Amino acid sequence: MIKMGKIQSILEYIVIILLILEFNTPFSQYGIFAKIIYYIPIISIFLLLLLKGKKIQMKFWHLLLFFGSIIPFLNVQYGAESTYIRLFMLFLPLSILYFSNYEEERNVILYKYTNVILIICCVSLFFYIMGSTLNLISPTAYVPVFWGEQRIYPTYFYLYFEAQNSFFLGNEYIRNCGIFNEAPMYNMALCIALAIELFLREKKRKIVLCILGVTIITTFSTTGQIFLCFLIFCAMWNTKNKKYKFLKFLLLTLMLLVIPFVINWILQDKVSSSSGEGSVSARSYDIQKCIQIGLDNLFFGKSLLSEQNPNHNYGFSNSLFALFADGGLYVLALYLSGLLFIPLYNMTRKKFFKESIVLLLYFYLFSITVSHFRYLTLLFVAYGISMCINYRQYGK
């Protein structure tokens, strides 16, 4: 007979695998497969709650958040009502309930996330080196994908997609996009896995950290390179071995001197390339447009899930300002609470310090990557909010 722990673990892996596939991959665009990706995570989290049986606790804040989600429903893009219900009235409340009721195991599902991302890393590195770089393996198919426009992606057994090129140091390279629509999405997924592995997991797996770091480099993402520099600095700062105290001092001094130049060099190279200059100017214009739309519709935004409108022409470069434009201060406050305000509050009270660092790093990545209406982002929003509303953890 299968033990409850095994069932719980299987359900959590199902949730994580489908959340990753929903995080802007080609798989989320195709018929019945898309429906599986959209609805099975909701069913799986519901089943996880049923495993708790009578132990499930519904608190006042759970109900308040659920009923509060009804107000933005009145401002949803026509035709996107079912998407809103799926995201904000089903997945988010259930995720908050999950983290609240699995409080002693809240990080277990995140460890499973790093395990799945590690497998994706190994597969993508193999095909990136053997196929995209050395051309020893040829693509096995060409897949039509709509990402801003209709595109054709070469794929290797549908396990790796050549989705994007980039200029770096004056040369053009194929970017490692893994199974994602573009490199920034893959980079964000990798960086979050690296943060979880580095800050939350008790026993650090050095080989996993190295694989994640190398894969981030192959995405040629400016965000990822800066993220790596920051995490290397944090890792060195937290070194407790007294034998390396003097070496630590020298290395940290060197890092403080070198990192600003490295970051500046990366940014300058990004801007100086023809594609980089266009990317920077387009991002700047997009942010300005989102801010203006948000200010014109301050409290509830222009229209939630407006990207489903064929005439939608903003919010293609970031999440933070796009969310402000679409949902106004009302919806933006939900995300800021889970990813920014609650983590900062917890850190001042010296509670959930490491978890708060991961949430703040997610906020950084979320702010500059299009990911606001994705399950993975809502999972981390729920992760942050659940830390605040669970009265037992605050001794109330």
TrEMBL record:
Q: Name one Pfam family in it.
A: Wzy_C
Q: Which UniProt keywords apply?
A: Membrane, Transmembrane, Transmembrane helix
Membrane topology value: Multi-pass membrane protein
Q: Which InterPro entries match?
A: O-antigen_ligase-rel_domated (IPR007016)
Q: What is the name of this protein?
A: O-antigen ligase-related domain-containing protein
Q: Where in the cell is it found?
A: Membrane
Give the O-antigen ligase-related domain ranges.
Answer: 208-336
Q: Which residues cross the membrane?
A: 7-24, 30-51, 60-78, 84-101, 113-131, 151-171, 183-200, 206-234, 246-267, 320-345, 357-383
Annotated GO CC locations? membrane
UniProt organism field: Segatella copri
